[in-house]
Amino acid sequence: MNYADFSELFKDIIGLAKKAKDYKLTNVILELQNRTMNLIQENIDLKDQLSKQKDDEDFAKNIKLTEGVYYYKDEEVPYCTRCWDADKKRIHLEKDEYDGIWFCPEEIFLRKK
């Protein structure tokens, strides 16, 4: 059952309660609907967290430290080690045109604040 199924079910139940003119029942059903929607949202949030955690685990298993930077699988642009190790952020490094050294744009941004 998904959100739309629950929503339709509650509309039907509320309609029946209104026809019966039982306002206490209608209020209880509305509260049940509200709590159910909160649980559905919590479930969605937990699934998103689990998906992100699995994605992060995959990333961590497939990065390789080379010359002080992380490379993911066969990507040619490395990731910042500090951003990943400290905050689990996947920030691609940029290459300085002058000396060819990799730098983190996030660190530059944070310094300007």
List the helices and strands and how they pair.
Blueprint lengths: L2 H17 L3 H39 L1 E4 L2 E4 L8 H7 L6 E2 L6 E2 L1 H8 L1
Antiparallel strand pairs: 1-2, 3-4
Structure description:
The chain is mainly alpha-helical. The protein folds into 2 domains: 3-58; 63-112, no CATH class. Helices cover 63% and strands 11% of the residues. The chain contains 4 helices and 4 strands; from the N terminus they run H-H-E-E-H-E-E-H. It has helices at 3-19, 23-61, 81-87, 105-112; strands spanning 63-66, 69-72, 94-95, 102-103. The strands form 2 sheets. A two-stranded antiparallel ribbon has the order 1-2. Strands 3-4 form a two-stranded antiparallel ribbon. Strand 1 (63-66) and strand 2 form a beta hairpin. Helix 1 (3-19) packs antiparallel against helix 2 (23-61). The protein is rod-shaped, with a radius of gyration of 25 Å. The mean pLDDT is 88.
What is the chain-wise order of helices and strands?
A: HHEEHEEH
Could you tell me the strand content as a percent range?
5-15%
What's the total helix number?
4
Proportion of helical residues: 55-70%
Mean pLDDT over the residues: 88
Distance between the termini: 47 Å
Number of domains: 2
Largest sheet: 2 strands, antiparallel
Low-confidence stretches: none
Q: What is the CA-atom radius of gyration, in angstroms?
A: 25 Å
Task: Report a brief summary of the structure.
The protein is mainly α and 113 residues long. The chain has helices at 3-19, 23-61, 81-87, 105-112; strands at 63-66, 69-72, 94-95, 102-103. α1 (3-19) runs antiparallel to α2.
